[in-house]
């Protein structure tokens, strides 16, 4: 049976990203080929999943932190899962490989891991015949993203051609809640806040790599054993929010299913990857603040709180001044372009 798998953790479809080359991740609002699997009923009562994306079986890879990935040519124990009825049409998947439950880990961008000893919300899924479950676009307002391409070009009149609107909108599926939470005003305010901080960090999408080359060697934390420095690689700022440090490249790559620790230059080579790293920080990291930028805007804490998260130690904690005002000015300008009031608490 051709089927879709939907995570109860964030109500999104599981995708075999990059045509199956990346680990499975729950991040799609709509189901297409990458989000479709043939369900195989094995003789021992277990099930296996054959990805339509690359015609490979999904495996719980114990050599890769138990991530689920479609890479096996035959069914063995690592490719088998027990379906556990959780009621209300929901099931849990227990990997035969290690007897642990599959989880859509929202702390890691929704990537699927077989690493939980018990099943709860993040470990619950629904499996439906492909084409029978209604799917919704990621950003339904007006049939697309809440910022049009014309508005994007107006916001960034001197942007580098690398920073494409298509690359941005392609990256949105990684974090479907971004600029898609709350009413129309809240969605526009979050989009404006993100784009304003991006404007400040990159000089209006002019800089792809950090401008100050003297800083390049400084961003390597050789004491970090989880995300160790790759020989010959530098982790200076790249992309819309200038992601830096090896531990950030490692964590972002882990969440997005991309080899950013080994190849940080991907952020400066692929527009969609660059935008995804910025969305990863915005939606999952608290930085120098106490909450993510996404939460700051959707929980009415205001634009100033996003400044604190992104660069609070250097800007908010040193009296604000020019950089803070620059961000605020851009936020007001972009809100005007999008036709929304900027709200309260603009400065940190």
From TrEMBL:
<dbReference type="InterPro" id="IPR000726">
    <property type="entry name" value="Glyco_hydro_19_cat"/>
</dbReference>
<keyword id="KW-0611">Plant defense</keyword>
<protein>
    <recommendedName>
        <fullName>Glycoside hydrolase family 19 catalytic domain-containing protein</fullName>
    </recommendedName>
</protein>
<keyword id="KW-1015">Disulfide bond</keyword>
<dbReference type="InterPro" id="IPR023346">
    <property type="entry name" value="Lysozyme-like_dom_sf"/>
</dbReference>
<dbReference type="Pfam" id="PF00182">
    <property type="entry name" value="Glyco_hydro_19"/>
</dbReference>
<feature type="domain" description="Glycoside hydrolase family 19 catalytic">
    <location>
        <begin position="158"/>
        <end position="348"/>
    </location>
</feature>
<dbReference type="InterPro" id="IPR008999">
    <property type="entry name" value="Actin-crosslinking"/>
</dbReference>
């Amino acid at each position: 049976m051709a089927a879709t798998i939907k995570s109860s953790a964030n109500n999104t479809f599981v995708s075999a990203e990059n045509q199956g080359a990346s680990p499975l991740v729950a991040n799609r609002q709509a189901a297409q080929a990458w989000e479709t699997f043939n369900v195989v009923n094995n003789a021992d009562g277990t099930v296996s999943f054959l990805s339509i994306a690359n015609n490979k079986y999904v495996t719980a890879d114990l050599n890769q932190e138990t991530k689920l990935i479609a890479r096996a040519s035959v069914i063995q124990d690592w490719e088998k899962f027990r379906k556990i009825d959780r009621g209300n049409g929901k099931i849990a998947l227990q990997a035969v490989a290690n007897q642990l439950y599959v989880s859509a880990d929202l702390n890691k961008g929704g990537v699927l891991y077989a690493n939980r000893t018990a099943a709860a919300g993040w470990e619950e899924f629904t499996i439906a015949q492909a084409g029978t479950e209604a799917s919704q676009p990621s950003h339904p307002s007006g049939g697309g993203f809440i910022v049009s391409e014309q508005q994007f070009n107006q916001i960034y009149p001197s942007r580098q051609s690398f920073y494409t609107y298509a690359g941005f909108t392609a990256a949105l599926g990684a974090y479907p809640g971004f600029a898609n939470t709350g009413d129309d005003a809240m969605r526009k305010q979050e989009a404006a806040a993100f784009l304003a901080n991006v404007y400040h960090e990159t000089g209006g999408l002019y800089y792809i790599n950090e401008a100050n080359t003297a800083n390049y060697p400084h961003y390597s934390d050789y004491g970090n054993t989880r995300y160790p420095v790759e020989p010959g690689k530098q982790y200076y700022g790249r992309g819309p929010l200038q992601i830096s440090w090896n531990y950030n490249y490692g964590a972002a790559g882990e969440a997005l299913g991309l080899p950013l620790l080994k190849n940080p230059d991907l952020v400066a080579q692929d527009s969609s990857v660059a935008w995804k790293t910025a969305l990863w920080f915005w939606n999952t990291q608290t930085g120098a603040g106490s909450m993510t930028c996404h939460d700051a805007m959707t929980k009415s804490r205001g634009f100033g709180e996003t400044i604190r998260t992104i660069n609070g130690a250097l800007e908010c904690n040193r009296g604000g001044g020019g950089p803070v005002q620059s961000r605020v000015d851009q936020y007001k300008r972009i809100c005007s372009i999008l036709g929304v009031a900027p709200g309260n608490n603009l400065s940190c």
